[in-house]
Amino acid sequence: MKTKQVLAASLALLLTGAIAACSGDDSGGGGGQDKPTNCTNTIPKPDAPVVTLWAWYPNTQLVVDNFNKAHDDVQVCWTNAGAGGDEYDKFQTAITAGKGAPDVVMLEADRIATFQIQKALVDLTDKGYQDVKANFSEGAWKDLSVGSGVYGAPIDGGPMGMIYRKDVFDKYKITPPTTWAEYETAAQKVKDAGGPLFGDFPANQPAYVTALLYQNGAQPFTYDPANKGEISIKLNDDASKKVLDYWAGLVKKGLVGKQDQFTPEYIAGVIGGKYGTYLSAAWAPGYLQGAGVGKGADAKVWATAPLPQWDPANPVSVNWGGSAFSVTSQAKDPALAAKVAFGVYADDASLKDGWENQIIFPLNLKVLKDPAFIDAKVGFFDGQQANKEVYVPAANAYKGMTYTPIGQYFYTAFTKQIAAINDGSKTGSEAADALQEDVVKYATEQGLTVK
């Protein structure tokens, strides 16, 4: 069995692939820069020590300015190194090169384990975590933990619900389904009456489908780096097969679509009334509005409801998306970098701007308990109090997920199997079996011991 150090090295080589040939980019990086000069923002207190930050949210400029104005002992130099994958590619290159990474990097929760196994992130448990632990839920912290270590400061999350078209539900006399059985019944009723597809099962969104597996009690991965490279992989258990067989059935019956999401074709379908529901997260209104949804003929037709359940007597809340600030192992002063990670996007003004403009769904409990946030009337939902009715209860009930250090490969493999379900070449159970075999083989090849 490989040691953790060799395992990390082998995974790093694998993950970089084509990226490794790229030259490192020191823009905005940490690694010993005392006074970076290439900041996107203006640093108002140049005599203070500087912590470099990569982040991509639209209001990061405001957030960084708020932090810098409030602190005399540290200033933030912000660079937008790209959103999501673009930033991750640059970060991976910096990890491989051993230089060029920032002190603090914005990461989605499901990417943390991948970078942690490469020793690219700093454990924050003794760097201010205890001081802010009570500000967030158990589920929020679990998403950012790998084993006993905490490798990120929560920013936002994606508690899931069911967005739906009120005009479609009114026309076909449907009330929001509370169970997946009711969801299928409603979908069949709409189809039989000549109505639109009831939803969509996208192959290009495996993280979303993974959340649905968790909702039925599946535990796809168990991983703790303290266990010397051991990992549990359960992708074809009964809970997972039940979910995939359910969606395979909806696809086969023509009740839901098979369109990749976050594409112009999908958005055109949403605007054009092609789908009765959109199963998504609390950040969805901001995304949809930015894509042009709800601004024309489909304005004021949208509402949201809790995600349907398998067992309404034992409801399970799940999450899709969400980001954190992580301290990188190249940070010159990890303790000071941790202060920034925990402090940026934590002040009242920044949090309020985030949720009022539907940029983020904050996970900070002082927001989740704030009547102004709870009772807010959301314009996209025609004034519905969506936080009170759907998203705050879902966020409060969420227990967290265990992510895997081979997450990117898992998502790629899962995309392939969802596509096989959608083209009719595999049942849900067959896809689950194939996924299990594929991911176990890959994990073993990377030096992990599958339990």
From TrEMBL:
The keyword Amino-acid biosynthesis belongs to this UniProt entry's keyword annotation: no
Domain of life: Bacteria
Pfam families: SBP_bac_1 (PF01547)
UniProt signal peptide: 1-20
UniProtKB keywords: Signal, Sugar transport, Transport
InterPro entries according to UniProt: Bact_solute-bd_prot1, SBP
Matching PANTHER family: ARABINOSE-BINDING PROTEIN-RELATED, BLR3389 PROTEIN
Protein name: Multiple sugar transport system substrate-binding protein
Organism: Asanoa ishikariensis
